[in-house]
Amino acid sequence: MKFNIVHDVQSVYRKLVDAISRPGELASLQRECLLVKGENYLSDHQSVLLLALTMLDQEVTFKVLSEKEEIISKVIYQLTNAKPAQLEQADYIFVLHDAEAGALEQAIHMAKEGTLYNPHLSASIIAETKSVSSGEEFLLKGPGIPESIVIATDLPRGWAKKRAAKNKEYPLGIDLFLIDADQQLLAIPRTAQMTEKQVMI
Length: 201
Known about the structure:
Elements: H1 7-21, E1 27-28, H2 30-37, H3 46-55, E2 61-65, H4 69-80, E3 83-84, E4 92-95, H5 103-110, E5 124-128, E6 136-141, E7 149-153, H6 159-166, E8 175-179, E9 184-188, E10 193-196
Parallel strand pairs: 2-3, 2-4, 4-5, 5-8
Antiparallel strand pairs: 1-9, 6-7, 6-10, 8-9
Helix pairs in contact: 1-3, 5-6
């Protein structure tokens, strides 16, 4: 089958909505990634491309943190008409797996958090990681979560504290989307309260 920019982007959109409506539950983009891979766009970052096609248009801005920032930004611009911007001004921030150490923490710290009158003028961060099913564990609570749910990610330590600081004055804050090497998507919206899971001995 061939990638259909209308049908398959709609499929990704539905999965994205489900993921953010049910924080902590994984959504698979494997099928859509296999299709878009055949188009030879961003061969190492199919999930990022799919999310860019779904989230971005000519009305928004974005920033890519990656060793290949220039070429990836060019592809995203050509396909979405969204404009590249500085980190602190971007509506969407993509932190790829080859970004410098500490890039995610920097992105969270510098990202727009919106205002009390316009909380929607905040940034969304999309970050690549190896796994969203193993690693450091956290408890999520909040809207869309029955009682609580455990999530895990192998992201380097430090990002969770930065996120907590950024989201301390709700409705200000950022929404975070993690995508792993198996094209599994995990959404952590600003409404979700996240604490490190305590290990019982």
